[in-house]
Amino acid sequence: MIRKLKDKKKAIEMRGRGYSLNEIADKLNVSKASVSLWVREVPLTPKAKGRINERRKIAREKVSNVIKNKTIEKEKEADNFAEVIVEKLDNSEFPAQLILAMIYWCEGNKSLKDSVFFTNSDPKLIRTFVGLLRKSFVLDEKKFRVCMHLHGYHKDVIQKKFWAEVTGIPESQFIKSYQKKHTSKQTNEGYQGCVQIRYYDVRIARKLLALARRFMLNFK
User: What are the extents of the domains in the chain?
Assistant: First the structure.
């Protein structure tokens, strides 16, 4: 009983100096519930409140850092997994054609009456698609056309230069841009618009769609 009274007195004193419930419980080796009961009526000075708030801030930062580090570890694990898989791919045309076919199945035009039409706004995906297309087939570069889908806040000249660098297709092969309606007052910073890559050879489109369908039959 005497020890309990001493612990309570010490807890009240520490709380008055701005110690947190966890700090007091750890220091006195008692439960947090007991500390909470003992100090619930203790008035806190601005200095004490400041210390408590600072400790809470430090605790939140520690938790945030732990979560961040765990996320980094998970991302590293995923990167290692991807690296092993990619290293297994050789420089032959087969893996490139298969990947190209699946990308085209997801984002390309599936009409067998049209040529290769591939539309997306992600510069990395556009660059990858065009690169795989060039690697997989013998192409006539003059058959490429690019149609940009832009908002009113885009500058046609600037976007044409940007997408020409991404695709390696000369600006002279860009056709008239399609102007999309922009209903919001805000602009999407960093958004470069959407482009449709066109390659006028329906035989390649047919081959890509056939390859994708054939591949997916393996997972019926």
Answer: 2-66, 93-219
